[in-house]
Amino acid sequence: MGKYANKKVPAYFEYKYGINFEAEKDFLAKNGYLEDAKPTGKGDAMIEKHQSVIVSHSKNSGHNKEIKKVMEEIKNVPPSSDPVNNNLVGMNLEKDGNVDAAVSLYEYNVTHRFEGSHPYKRLCIIYRKRKMYDDEIRVADKAIQNLAQSNRKEYFRNRTVKATNLKNKAK
User: Fold this and answer.
1) Domain of life of the organism in this record (predicted)?
2) Measured between alpha carbons, how far is 101 from 10 in angstroms, rounded to an integer?
3) Domain boundaries, the chain
4) Which CA distances in Å does 40 have to 9, 22, 34?
5) Which whole-number Å values give the CA distances from 117 to 13, 78, 145, in the listed order?
6) What is the largest CA-CA distance in the chain?
């Protein structure tokens, strides 16, 4: 039965998702997704196919430490061709403490001239915290080039001035 044989099914399945765990387990077994309470090849294929759903529902639950551990170990998340998705994944990675992976997604968006301010702002904040003033200035300059809104450009001009002053003080 494996390492979960004697474990109690978390109550959140019923309360959060409205799932009767035992009935769902029986359904999965009858339809070839589980055998002896373990996923079959068919079950593994469905887990792989729907990994993003599984992760999004479990990483903030506090109940699945193994998935949290795997998420923390991810170092390079491949960027999506959808820059908004990169920003959303980046935000989640930051929440999970994987700031380096978030930085790579935000940098991808900056390189591809994303027109929204999110990746530029997050990178400037991260680089300031890390005292990486040259990178902050580089990203702020890219924001000034790529953003259409003049009020956003002013924000990044101010960041450039502040980062330059901090850089000069650090010398």
Assistant:
1) Bacteria
2) 31
3) 12-73, 83-170
4) 20, 18, 5
5) 38, 21, 11
6) 69
Cα 48 from chain centroid (whole Å): 18
pTM of the model: 0.57
- SS3 state of residue 34: strand
Domain 83-170 annotated CATH 3.40.50: no
128 token code pair: 């300031």
Which pair of structure tokens corresponds to residue 11? 């109550």
Per-residue pLDDT tens listing for the chain (171 residues):
444 445 555 555 555 556 666 777 787 888 888 888 788 888 777 777 766 666 665 555 554 555 455 555 545 567 888 889 889 999 988 998 889 989 999 999 999 999 889 999 999 999 999 999 999 999 999 999 988 877 788 999 999 999 999 999 988
Q: Which residues pair with 38 in a beta bridge?
A: 35
Length, in residues, of the chain: 171
